[in-house]
Design goal:
Elements (H helix, E strand, L loop, with lengths): L1 H39 L1 E6 L9 H8 L2 H4 L2 E6 L7 H5 L5 E4 L1 H9 L6 E6 L6 E6 L14 E4 L3 H13 L8 E4 L5 H7 L3 E5 H10 L4 E5 H4 L9 E5 H6 L1 H20 L1 H9 L7 H11 L15 H13 L9 H4 L9
Parallel strand pairs: 1-2, 1-3, 6-7, 6-8
Antiparallel strand pairs: 3-10, 4-10, 5-8, 5-9
Helix pairs in contact: 2-11, 2-12, 8-13, 11-12, 12-13
Amino acid sequence: MVVALLVSSLTGCQNEPVKEESKVENENNEEGKNEEKESELEKVTFILDYLPNTNHTGIYTALEKGYFKEEGLEVEIIQPASTDIDPLIAKGEGDLGVSFQERVTLARTAKNPLPIKAVAAIIQHNTSGFAAPVEKSIKSPKDFEGKIYGSWGTDLERAFLKTVMEKENADFEKLEILDLETFDFFTSVKNTVDFQWIFYGWDGIAAEVKDFPIDFIKLQDVDPKLDFYTPVIITNEEMIKNRPEVIRKFLKAATKGYEFAIENPEEAVENLLKHAPETDKEIAVKSQKYLAQEFKKDAERWGEMKLEIWETFGGWMYENGLLEKELNAKEAFTNEFLPEK
């Protein structure tokens, strides 16, 4: 009996390490499989247009929720040193990125055209316009006369101003335009200028949060020609030719990200804040709730673009001397990489 117990005891002692070794081996195998899966992911670089903000929540949500990995992609989101990312995408220094319809139009009609193309609209309609503190009494473009406009220093702004003022029979020559060194709307209108061009989805919402009453004149409300896609996701012709499936997979994941942001704005903001903790959360949440109504708006699917919008706004830019030649709108964008409806 004693011998039997000793044998049993020794056998038990010998078996324990075997179980432990087996457990460690299984864990190592799992880690190895995970590393193998990670190494199988295709790397994609995505360049932002500016600081991370609520326009980008669908991208950050796709990253945080694993939608890109589900499509076999390892996406690196890059914040650029400059807001002009079009040349970077054109040269292949980024695979995809955030730009604007007007910049794509300028790039494709330049003397030395850039081979970039829009593949998705982040927001369906232009939410920008001219804003002023209510005490400035700027209710319509007619009220721009005798006022000081704070400019970003672009010809596009001047064309916007001239167009909307002419619509209201106002004299453009009676407007003073001051190029600004800082583009903070609140600082500028408190100190040096009467009004500025803003995007309501951020500065307009910030004014609401700060209890800073403004009058806002949306561009497309004055002239429908000024409704355009801003911002858009772009890529280059080489990507389209050589890696079309990567674009398709990226946009499938991005679509899921934006659809999630539309339905869950507060959680989408949390995904953004993980990468941009300095962002004002109160403004971001309210901004996201506003954009949740704008991302898809009246389109059948997120990201979809219409030829009419590209032709109309491109024609307006050409008529106003902003382009060296007319835009071939059909070549400037495509919906082919978006998920099926």
